[in-house]
Amino acid sequence: MNRNAIDEKILELIKRNEAISNPELSRILGIQEEEVTERIRNFSDTRSKILIVDDEMDTLLPLKISLQVEDYIVIGALNGCEAIDKAKIEIPDLILLDIMMPEMDGYEVCSRLKKDARTKNIPIIMLTAKDAVRDKVKGLDIGADDYVTKPFNLNELKARIKTVLRRSKNLLS
């Protein structure tokens, strides 16, 4: 059962019996009680979740801290394979994606995410040192929603994040 299906099942069981306990939910669903508790806690967390994908810790950690201060839930991934796995599990509201990574570059990650039904609607901002027009066009053509070059201005990036999230939420409503 995928993450969304489990969450939907929890909600369905709670609607049928508001007094159902977490141990009972755990037993019915065959998952750990701690996972049930965490999922229920996440239902009420309305903060936007951002996945940052960058193989450079010098970029990932400061950006992660800066966005957490802005009250975002931030998840990090150090390579493309990890990014795809985390995107499918966490279903973030936005992905900040570096292009130049070992093994699988950001273009391939973006392409794979946009082809997967579970992740195709997650907005992606490419965040990279590649600043040639052809690189920007390629990123946008494969499905990125925006493209920001490094070094970036943190305030501009935060504004772009807010804009993409707002646009994304408007599409969902």
Q: Care to count the β-strands?
A: 5
Number of domains: 2
Treating each run of at least 4 consecutive H or I residues as one helix, how many helices?
8
Strand coverage percent: 5-15%
CATH superfamily (homologous) name of the largest domain: Response regulator
Order of helices and strands: HHHEHEHEHEHEH
Largest sheet: 5 strands, parallel
Helical content stands at: 40-55%
Q: Termini, distance in Å? A: 26 Å
Q: What is the CATH C level class of the largest domain, in words?
A: Alpha Beta
Average pLDDT, rounded to a whole number, is 91
CATH fold-level assignment of the largest domain: Rossmann fold
Shape: elongated
**Rounded Rg:** 18 Å
**CATH architecture group name of the largest domain:** 3-Layer(aba) Sandwich
Q: Which regions are unreliable across 5 or more consecutive residues at pLDDT < 50?
A: none
Q: What's the arrangement of strands in the largest beta sheet? A: 2-1-3-4-5
Class by SSE composition: alpha/beta
Describe this structure in words.
With 173 residues, this protein is α/β, with parallel strands linked by helices. It folds into two domains: 41 residues, Arc Repressor Mutant, subunit A, CATH 1.10.10; 124 residues, Response regulator (Rossmann fold). Helices cover 55% and strands 13% of the residues. Strands 2-1-3-4-5 form a five-stranded parallel sheet, with helices on both faces. The chain starts with a helix and ends with a helix.
